[in-house]
Amino acid sequence: MWRLVILLTIVLSVDCVVIGRIQDAQLIGDDNEVWFNQTREQCICEMVKSNGLILALNYFVTNQTCQFFSLNATNIRLEFFMNCLVIYVNQSTLLNMFQSTTSTLPFTTTTQTEWIRTGDMTVPRSSHSASVLSNGQVLVAGGTSHGVYLSNAELYDPSTGLWTPTGSMNVARSVHRTVVLSNGNVLATGGYTGTNCLSSAELYDASTGTWTYTGNMNVARHGHGITLLLNGKVFVFGGFTGSVYTNTAELYDPASGIWTNTGSMSVARYFPPASIFSNGKVLVSGGYTGSIYTNTAELYNPTTGTWTSTGSMNFARYGHTLSMSSNETVLVVGGIDNSGYYESTAELYSSSTGIWIVTGSMSITRFGHKALELTNGKVIVIGGRNNIYSALNSAEVYSPSTSNWKTIENLTVARMYHSACLLSNGIIHVSGGQLNGDYTNTVEVHY
Ligand SMILES: *[C@@H]1O[C@H](CO)[C@@H](O)[C@H](O)[C@H]1NC(C)=O
Ligand SMILES: *[C@@H]1O[C@H](CO)[C@@H](O)[C@H](O)[C@H]1NC(C)=O
Ligand SMILES: *[C@@H]1O[C@H](CO)[C@@H](O)[C@H](O)[C@H]1NC(C)=O
Ligand SMILES: *[C@@H]1O[C@H](CO)[C@@H](O)[C@H](O)[C@H]1NC(C)=O
Ligand SMILES: *[C@@H]1O[C@H](CO)[C@@H](O)[C@H](O)[C@H]1NC(C)=O
Ligand SMILES: *[C@@H]1O[C@H](CO)[C@@H](O)[C@H](O)[C@H]1NC(C)=O
């Protein structure tokens, strides 16, 4: 009993509860061994209690069912993905695994991971925001659904895999931008209501589940960029004002709730992605200027409030992503260039040289995908669309050590204009989006 309590404590405190589908494993027991209406922790508890008889489990959040597996050592394929552990083995190895990193495993087999459907959102939505709250829940807000612009918001609880409605924003917002402030509140900025471009901003208080207006931005914007600066202020730049594409930028001070203009970019940029370096400077590249897709890049210095041009990308890009990779290098991926050519290319920007260097290309062209920074400098790109406007169901991972991409399992649903976020325990969470004209409320996770 003592041992059981200790092991469970480890599992729960690490919160790296990662369950991969195990192929070719032998399903043990009969129907009595399939548990309904259980939490993930209850399933793990049952596995630990079995004292080695149950060596792995599948937990389905959709129907809260667990399936237990015994080990058929010669046939289990375990392929580890990311810095998270995927399988539960017997008690003596459990402890070691939670202390080990991905590269050293107590055995030589590999685990197969895959995308797993989790609870659906209450409404289909695309171009919404998704924010990971400090309590681990995911807040999605706004977006569009079959032509309707949404103000409503809902919360995903990773421990149950279910969504519950929470307070609605004061106004419908799509292609708005959000950040989680250092005090845990979520700031939603700008966006498009379906008729108007917004200068307003509002704060979500996770403790009350309500939204309240805060100061207005000086400029209305949607499709702008946003970054939380190291000093806790929120930095927005570019976007469309409702009449022009803008190069303006401004800062929000959470202490006063006031927006102040800061230096403008050298060009207007619509959908400018950004990355922040450890010295606090913000790199912005590409986007639509109002006339062309640009290959230019510039750096914002929060200390001086000014922008400096830096090396240009090798390709003009719009609908691309920027992600911090290893060693303070930034990876730019995909997008569309001025000839209408969709990019599979990727480039790395080094803060020390200020130069972009082409690195390995993705397996396919990709626009409007989502990118997440994983552990060890790896970057995953998810979904998006290709040059025939088809939503993509593929995802691939860039490894800085090999400069190459590895395509992983297909998503269960092809998506563009979806959201993607990394949960606190390393789980990738993908919600909503569009697939070829339709909107989806489906959600899936990858461990
Ligand atoms: C699971 O819980 C639901 C709702 O409480 C209930 O309707 C259902 O019968 C339960 N399923 C089983 C197999 O116990
Ligand atoms: C629970 O859901 C999973 C995934 O949808 C499915 O494979 C499994 O058969 C379901 N379990 C039961 C007992 O219905
Ligand atoms: C493991 O499973 C495979 C495929 O189901 C089977 O052929 C093999 O005999 C099993 N091995 C053991 C040791 O049970
Ligand atoms: C637990 O698993 C490890 C590795 O799979 C094995 O070496 C060890 O003998 C197992 N212990 C028990 C009690 O089954
Ligand atoms: C990052 O820098 C360290 C130290 O210079 C080096 O050992 C490592 O290989 C670099 N990693 C990558 C992915 O370039
Ligand atoms: C992934 O999806 C693509 C496109 O739909 C399809 O061609 C491919 O066969 C799928 N791969 C797997 C492993 O299912």
From TrEMBL:
It comes from the Eukaryota. InterPro entries: Gal_Oxidase_central_sf (IPR037293), Kelch-typ_b-propeller (IPR015915), Kelch_1 (IPR006652). The keyword Glycosyltransferase does not apply. Residues 1-16 form the signal peptide. Gene3D superfamilies: Galactose oxidase/kelch, beta-propeller. It holds the Pfam family Kelch_1. The keyword Repeat applies. Keywords: Kelch repeat, Repeat, Signal. This is Kelch repeat protein. It comes from Adineta ricciae.
